Amino acid sequence: MRDWAVADAKNRFSELITKALEEGPQRVTRRGRRVIVRAEDDAIDAPAPRGRVEYEGHVARPAEGLRVLLIIGGGIAAYKSLELIRLLRQSGVAVRAILTEAGAQFVTPLSVGALSEDKVYGDLFDLTDEAEMGHIELSRSADLVVVAPATADLMAKAANGIANDLASTALLATDKRVLMAPAMNVRMWTHPATQRNLTRLAADGVVMVGPDEGAMACGEFGPGRMAAPAAIRDAIIRLLNNEARPLAGKHALVTAGPTIEPIDPVRFLSNRSSGRQGYAIAAALAAAGARVSLVSGPVALADPPGVTVKRVETALEMLGACEAALPADVFVSVAAVADWRPDRCAEEKIKKGQAAKAIGLTENPDILATLSKPGPNRPGLVIGFAAETEHVEAHARAKIAKKGCDWIVANDVSGDVMGGVENEVLLIRRDGAERWPRMAKEAVAARLADAVAAALTARGGGLTGRARCADGAHAAKPSRRRRWRRRARRSWRSICD
Ligand SMILES: Cc1cc2nc3c(=O)[nH]c(=O)nc-3n(C[C@H](O)[C@H](O)[C@H](O)COP(=O)(O)O)c2cc1C
Fold it and tell me: Are the CB atoms for 151 and 194 separated by under 8 Å?
């Protein structure tokens, strides 16, 4: 896949032609200010943005940054694993391959290495490989281990804990999920020994894709053909997203940085927020698989990878961009939004001599409180940040009640937190509080993303927050709540009956 800026795309015609000649027909789609080019047969697409403003920034590929260890066994279907590597790379998945001795009879390490753009491993007792990356490390260096084609032999070894070459040792040593795409002659597949192994592997948590039924290279017909590479790729991405991306399918809206409120064309009111914590949270939520929209005030930070960024300046613009980005499953309000703006912004620079004795101030809208209001577009989980310089916990608790949000991440900004690289926070939920030790802002972000994933997945995912909050405390109006309770009681009765 290619992701180009619109202006740039016009100069890349020859690149497009080369891509089409090498990979077949290409689909060119415009998304806001980006042009996405992908092979026509590449069925997996990034989820279409719903009801949001066109964001600048890049569109994340479906499994960007995830890693697969691919074991290629010795079967005719090994040629299909080359196509599988190509499809995985197109989807943004990094592939490291182990080619069994028998596998190397069917495809060459050169082809596998060229497509995976990585070294190909084969020998358990290769001193150079072992010094570079030990076999145990190799087995754990990925998010998922895939065996395709999974020969009868590899299935038998894995089912029985045999580890007598690099592939089978890696299968025994890995701490990651294993997915197998079996491929073999129909009689080998239906043999009671293979079926026994299949049952054992399933009990061990190995996920199977295929085999398909059809005509085989050996001239027989029946189950045993390796599943199509695209089907294996889809299963891998689904599994990767479940394993490594608990927030896959969720939309997270994050604000970061300060807002600036103009006094005249050259002067403004603002604050010291660097945006670092909000950017780290956006990146952590994206790494957990969420589609992330980051609405950012002016900061000197690069866009976090895989996050779509809308840059704004004032609180009013930030509110507008947030509302346009809804619906969202989670909203994390990290921005230090200016509480006030000048009553008016002078059209020309105010001269020194004519400077007003006082600048009249108007209160800005409260973005956190606005997005916390019950309603069909309320995010399922609303998290505010409280920057306090005294009585941190008491003020943060009061903020939950006042704003109507679900959680508050409270931090004491009396030290070097604003603009610094570390943070020490107190996570306050309605039912309790957790004090986290001082750590890097990225570590705070990763821990918060874990907490968000746990909360959203515990509630069954989806836009569960529509018309009700995370813990139900703000669920619609009392009359609607009573109606909902009556309905719930009725449906429970019917289930119990
Ligand atoms: C031409 C040929 C095709 C083969 N195709 C398959 C196959 O599709 N599936 C399978 O399980 N074994 C197949 N085998 C047998 C395996 O290559 C053999 O069991 C080998 O030991 C597997 O080694 P590995 O599991 O380490 O890759 C084939 C053998 C030959 C000679």
Answer: no
